[in-house]
Amino acid sequence: MTERPGFWGYRRPDGRVGVRNHVLVVPTVICASVVCERIASALPGVAVPLPHLAGCGQLGPDMHTTHETLAAYCQHPNVGAVLVVALGCEQVIAQTLAESAKRAGKPAQIVSIQGEGGTLRAIGKGRQMAEQLAAGIVSASREWCDATSLILSLKCGGSDYTSGLASNPALGRVADRLVALGGYAVLGEIAEIMGAEHVLAARATRPDVGRQLLRVIDRVEAEAMALGLDIRGTQPSPGNIRGGLTTIEEKSLGATEKGGERSPLVDVVPYAGRITRPGLTVMDTPGLDVESVTGMVAGGAQVVVFTTGLGTPTGNPVAPVVKITGNARTAQQMSDNIDLDVSGVIADTESLDDAAGRLFEEVLAVASGKLTTAESLGHREFAIHRRNPTI
Amino acid sequence: MKPALVISDRDNVATALEPLEAGRSIDAGGRLVVARELIPSGHKIALVDIQAGGAVVKYGSAIGTATSAIQAGAHVHTHNLSSSRGRGDLAAQRVAPEPGVRLAEPADERNGFDGSEAADD
């Protein structure tokens, strides 16, 4: 009997499985971000700060997205406990964030800068609280979990011609394998599906899911067109073009290789929406790398695989980001940012299946605790998508 | 290493995996072509003549439209290939790639998310 693939993870009270065990220090608003970082810096390796630019001066959908995203991080399975850092007069409600963490079975506390009486007292009180929270979770132990507990975020950035030929199809094979076992994968970046939507829509399990995908693509295309501008101003990016990619359709077809060849498209969810159906989900995220990864992790992805041609350093505060490249030069020149080199696929010295096999093992190793280069270097970029102006 | 890679049999371009000098004859997935000019590594070379307005095909799908006639062996890039999507500057000529799958029915109401701007969940 062959053993099913799995990893050593943290089983959470709400039934989800984490691959990290952070104390998340989350500011409700940009005004609390520095205090949040100072608190987290007292517990390196345990506490992670989540500084952001939002939390006030936002209306309607943007305020909703900010709240939903922060709440999703408070509930994320890679988080063991939550400290909310409030200012006191902002729109995002600290109690709501703490409650969402508690609903997921996580200990949570709140420190308020106005309530404590200033920066120094809030940092002092916050550090005490963070220590208590850390003491409560550091002894949690990992248990063997089936690979199907994983939600894998499929991401590419700094793409060049090797992305569509090597790293993306290798990742696509990993997604197909995980989904075939019963696991989950999520693909974002609607602008980078534009021109390849027919490939994914044909794999929709229900007609309404295919329709949702086309509707989202239509909206993003209409938004670009409504500006009276040519999407070629940003897609493909100047670096993409130097790398040999000419059009958004070409970039999209290469990017969509990440979604595999067989995985059924089971759902289309809004930005930061929870991923609940086994199979391939598309999330409505922009093409900006950090906003996209931020949203997919909010949706529940515990591990991100990020393919790159030209090289890019970014990570995420709570989810490990595995960097792979099919560009031999990038693998050498940016070796401190690359976890896996699949350039042998281009050089014809490794098959795509072999490269995918190595990547699958790497994902499981990272899920079991192996640090990625982005984690080791302290990359924890985080940005909440916004559509409207700050009021 | 292969000098160039063809992804799908339907493709009319190949991707150079190393710089291809003018005059070099290469075997691209069983199809012979002579580079008419320098093709930088990672860039595309036309495998057949493509007429102006014709589709350039890679991954088995159209990746845009030839803006001028492209001869077999020519470099295919921004100077002779243009996207058909997201072109606000050409709004009147909006192109839907798969007319057969464009839809008019209401979206799934499962969670109120239909991809429209007003969706808030």
List the helices and strands and how they pair.
The complex is a heterodimer of chains A (about 400) and B (about 120).
Chain A: E1 6-11, E2 17-18, E3 22-27, H1 33-41, E4 47-49, H2 60-74, E5 79-86, H3 94-103, E6 108-112, H4 113-116, H5 119-137, E7 143-146, E8 151-157, H6 161-181, E9 184-187, H7 197-201, H8 207-226, H9 238-242, H10 248-256, E10 265-269, E11 279-283, H11 289-298, E12 303-308, E13 321-325, H12 328-333, E14 340-341, H13 344-347, H14 352-367, H15 373-376
Parallel strand pairs in A: 3-4, 3-5, 5-6, 8-9, 8-12, 9-11, 10-11, 12-13, 13-14
Antiparallel strand pairs in A: 1-2, 1-7
Chain B: E1 4-5, E2 13-16, E3 25-28, E4 31-34, E5 44-46, E6 55-58, E7 61-66, E8 75-76, E9 81-82
Antiparallel strand pairs in B: 1-2, 2-5, 3-4, 5-8, 6-7, 7-9
Describe this structure in words.
The complex is a heterodimer of chains A (391) and B (121). Chain A is an alpha/beta fold. Chain A has 2 domains: 22-137, Rossmann fold (3-Layer(aba) Sandwich); 146-376. Helix content of chain A is 40%, strand content 17%. Chain A has 15 helices and 14 strands. Chain A has helices at 33-41, 60-74, 94-103, 113-116, 119-137, 161-181, 197-201, 207-226, 238-242, 248-256, 289-298, 328-333, 344-347, 352-367, 373-376, and strands at residues 6-11, 17-18, 22-27, 47-49, 79-86, 108-112, 143-146, 151-157, 184-187, 265-269, 279-283, 303-308, 321-325, 340-341. In chain A, helix 6 links the parallel strand 8 (151-157) and strand 9 (184-187). The radius of gyration of chain A is 20 Å and the shape is globular. In chain B, the strands form 3 sheets. Chain B has a 4-stranded antiparallel beta sheet, with no helix packed on it. Chain B has a domain at 4-86: Roll (Archaeosine Trna-guanine Transglycosylase, Chain: A, domain 4), CATH 2.30.130. Chain B is an all-beta fold and 121 residues long. The model of chain B is unreliable at 92-112 and 117-121 (pLDDT under 50). Chain B is built from no helices and 9 strands. The relative contact order of chain B is 0.15. Chain B has strands at residues 4-5, 13-16, 25-28, 31-34, 44-46, 55-58, 61-66, 75-76, 81-82.
